[in-house]
Design goal:
Layout: H1 2-43, H2 47-72, H3 74-94, H4 100-125
Amino acid sequence: MEDTKVEQQQNEFTMLQKRAKNGTTVLFVLTGLAFLGGIILLGMGEEDYQSMGIGALILGVLYLSLGLWSRKKAYPALLVSSILYAAMVIFSVMTGSMNIFQIGIQALILVLLVRAALAANELRKH
């Protein structure tokens, strides 16, 4: 009976570690997408696109920094990431710059970040 309880605790601990790591992975994927988008926008040559490209590159640096921080201090980094991402999604929705499909994708990413932050918080308690 005790072996089963220990096994269950180990499985829960492993699941929490995976969720927290998934949050870090999401941040690195966002980094790559931001850098790629920034480079493409900069390459378009028009002034408006260049400004957006610089913004995307800055966002990429932010995601990269948060991803690296989450490797050392997962909970605060993932919590900050979740809050910042939620603020960007809310801003985008308020300005009407996203369609329903984009909102769904953004919501999925936000859910992954929040779940990772919650898992990292639980890991801190162990």
